[in-house]
Design a protein that fits this description.
2 copies of one chain form a homodimer. With 351 residues, chain A is an alpha+beta fold. Helix content of chain A is 32%, strand content 25%. Chain A has a domain at 48-113 and 205-350: Glutamine Phosphoribosylpyrophosphate, subunit 1, domain 1.
């Protein structure tokens, strides 16, 4: 039975930044983080972007001022990059790649540089990308030397006949596409290495967040992307939900785009990203209703911790999460906001 | 653009057996294979099983009498194995594993022994399994020495905290579970090796079918599984839809179980297996309506060739496919049938 291994490989969600919180999920009872959360609706926007840097146990007590500031700065830089493209009539896909590239290059997030370590003390990265106009997608799993896995995911969609490439094959493909290849040591961040050694000693598998972006451009096209280092101390070449279309990433111009973060196995089993789109498409739910139903009812009931960021065809934004915190932000032509903690509203700073 | 590679890596669906057909898809116009097809409905059944051995270009002209007979014999043996379990009050999951194991061990199908070869002339196998009562799942991707990948998929669900394990890691896990490990040469079938050499010379990637089973037991529990060798001449450690929960396999006791076969990239992009369940759940469609809508409207419009076998919570069976043929069969406590060609009805032999 699953419980045999679950006993020794205790899976807990930890925050995505370098410090670690040891809160007991069961003790945590911050209602506001479990309630619906959405950015401005009802106002007509010309473009809209949502980003995340991982859902987990971020609380004011567990995060230093320094990390708090660094994360907000990075989230804003990612939003700037996406907005800079969309405000000039650029396409949603370019905005998604630009925002995620910034988060991948920042060691505060578990994606690209800053990725967590496997049991074998390696960094194995996963990413996926979907274009909601073409309903086409690309993904890479378990890659170790591609500087920006999100770019490889998009290249798989655009330049190969496949959707999902893995390991050495995916790396060979990325090289053929002239993407930047780095020595695997590029990804090494000492605090992440310390974390996996601690996790190994305790026989724990720790979930450490993900980054993602969904954008809707002025022409109504939606794109979504997700990138991660996966779980600290993961084994057996485990692949989570981040490179799985329908689980970690989904985009459909007729409904919405979604990027997930959380305990990946639950997001795969519940086809979370596709399910939100299906509830809008087949049941007529709004983005807010659909995303909250999946995250705060279905997933929560099943014990699946995490959250999503979503943007719908009209530019509405929803960022529900059933964890204490989630690094998140949004920008439209009307306003922008970033937030970390569950009880923190997305600041609505007018442009 | 994708077209650059699509030009040299021409993807065609070919039949799953050892002979090869060279029919032009565009010339094919067998309406009956595109119409809805379903096994007995309206009669109350105590158990129900559907199986497939791959959708593709099976026609009476392209398949020898010998292969026709061997395939029907194997499909019936798989149905026997599943029925033997379910008629004695066994569980759906055991029936799925027993049926797929028989198809994996038979060189006539592209799964287990008989798997197609990659560009590097290796056999890389994918499989997944889902339990519709627990909404839990397991899968393996790109494994080369596990005799029955479907058993490894179920073990991932039952004995690991993960859903998807790949490559060497998945093999190490399977070994730790005492599953039968074979020398990779076990999977070699000469005709498959000849086929990949021909495909390499022509720079083609050929889709070669899959095997799958969905079962509903007397207690109303549904399980589904899928196993494949993937595409002939695949590269870059490509993973298709077969190990992807929501694309190749899905099971939910409240709706249905689904196993897919066809051009995997389309099945991933359209989250085919989950979409059929969602249409039943959120739009109130019957199994027949939902599965036909996805295969013969959505997928067909997008150019995605293939089919599914499905069993719903009441034991109804549907086996739509938009290809000329699909190796398929079903059995309930009332009747059984097997078929290969598109214009062939599932024979309804009374028990």
């Amino acid at each position: 039975m699953k419980s045999i291994l679950m006993g020794t490989l205790f899976v807990i969600l930890a925050l995505s930044c370098n410090s670690e919180a040891s809160m007991d999920a069961k003790k945590y009872n911050n209602k506001s983080s479990l309630e619906k959360e959405s950015a401005p609706t009802g106002e007509s926007v010309s473009y809209a972007v949502a980003i995340h840097g991982g859902a987990g146990y971020q609380t004011k007590e567990s995060i230093s001022n320094e990390t708090d500031l660094a994360v907000r700065k990075a989230l804003n830089a990612a939003l700037d990059a996406a907005e800079n493209i969309l405000s000039k009539n650029g396409v949603a896909g370019d905005a998604v790649i630009a925002a995620i590239e910034i988060l991948e290059n920042d060691p505060n997030f578990n994606a690209g540089k800053g990725a967590v370590f496997t049991n074998e003390e390696r960094n194995e990265l996963d990413a996926s990308y979907m274009d909601g106009a073409k309903m086409d997608a690309g993904a890479v799993g378990g890659v170790t030397n591609i500087k920006n896995p999100i770019k490889a995911a998009r290249a798989v969609m655009e330049e190969s006949p496949h959707v999902l490439l893995t390991g050495k094959g995916a790396e060979e493909f990325a090289k053929s596409q002239m993407l930047e290849i780095v020595d695997p040591s590029y990804f090494k961040v000492q605090s992440r290495l310390d974390a996996v050694r601690k996790a190994k000693a305790r026989k724990e598998v720790k979930k450490h967040g993900t980054v993602g972006c969904v954008a809707r451009d002025k022409n109504g096209n939606i794109a979504a992307g997700t990138s991660t280092g996966g779980m600290t101390n993961k084994r057996w070449n485990r692949i989570g939900d981040s490179p799985i279309i329908g689980a970690g990433t989904y985009a459909n111009n007729n409904t919405c785009g979604v990027s997930s973060t959380g305990h990946g196995e639950f997001f795969i089993r519940y086809a979370v990203a596709h399910d939100i789109s299906a509830l809008m498409d087949y049941k007529g739910m709004s983005l807010e209703e659909a995303s909250n139903h999946v995250i705060n009812e279905k997933l929560k009931k099943a014990g699946g911790e995490g959250g999503v960021i979503c943007v719908d065809k009209d530019g509405n934004i929803s960022t529900p999460h059933n964890t204490p915190g989630m690094y998140r932000g949004y920008v439209t032509d009307k306003s922008r906001g970033v937030a970390i903690y569950g009880d923190e509203e997305l600041q609505k700073v007018e442009h």
